[in-house]
Design goal:
Helix content: 10-25%
Largest sheet: 4 strands, antiparallel
Strand order of the largest sheet: 1-5-10-3
Distance between the termini: 25 Å
Strand content: 15-25%
Radius of gyration: 16 Å
Number of helices: 5
Structural class: alpha+beta
Mean pLDDT: 94
Length: 208
């Protein structure tokens, strides 16, 4: 049995699906998420990346992740190196905000210029279940404005949105994965491209 199987069973299963779709448990409003999420098994040994900006473990090990293969596809599509890859990030208008449909106002008021400025890399000790699928539109708090994710063309020539993983209550399963950066802060502006290459871009079973 998977360590996090309980997050996908009984009453909790409905809550988890709504979280993956981007619904807030308290208000019921949507704020993004995955379009048509599919439950998948992420195998032991998989390496995953997460973007964050608040220097606390619960933020570092939150629910939203991507595979190095998917980020490599993004990197290759935009073909920008170093600082050029991060152009506009501090204003919420960079590549990472655009492809993942992450609203800059989610970082606070006024928006934090360090939003999506750091990343963490983990390696699963055992398999975990997650929801997987392409980014959905991200409505504003008043639900009047939508941030639409930018599409990319992948290696097979398919035009599509970027795919994400959602792990419910990920911080509660901290014992099930290793922090490959050992708590060190890595900068998405200067280190992300190198880290994606370092940790490999092997295709996981659910990645077409």
């Amino acid at each position: 049995m998977l360590s996090n199987e309980a997050e996908f069973a009984g009453k909790r299963a409905t809550e988890t699906l709504l979280e993956a779709r981007g619904f807030d448990a308290r208000t019921g409003a949507r704020s993004g998420g995955i379009k048509d999420p599919e439950a998948v098994i992420v195998p032991a040994g998989a390496t995953l990346f997460r973007l964050y900006h608040i220097p606390m473990d619960k933020a570092r090990f939150g629910g939203w992740w991507f595979t190095p293969r998917e980020m490599q596809t993004v990197i290759e599509y935009f073909a920008r190196d170093g600082a050029a890859f991060a152009t506009g990030r501090t204003q919420g208008k960079g590549i990472l905000h655009a492809v993942l449909a992450v609203r800059h106002d989610w970082s606070g008021s006024p928006p934090n210029p360090d939003h999506l400025g750091r990343f963490v890399v983990i390696k699963l000790k055992g398999a975990l279940k997650a929801y997987f699928g392409v980014a959905d539109v991200a409505p504003s708090q008043d639900q009047r404005d939508n941030l639409k994710p930018i599409e990319i063309t992948d290696g097979s020539g398919q035009r599509r949105r970027v795919r994400q993983l959602y792990f419910p209550a990920m911080f509660a399963y901290r014992a099930d994965y290793d922090d490959l950066l050992s708590g060190l802060a890595a900068n998405s502006d200067s280190d992300l491209i190198a880290a994606v290459g370092k940790y490999g871009t092997t295709r996981l079973p659910f990645e077409a």
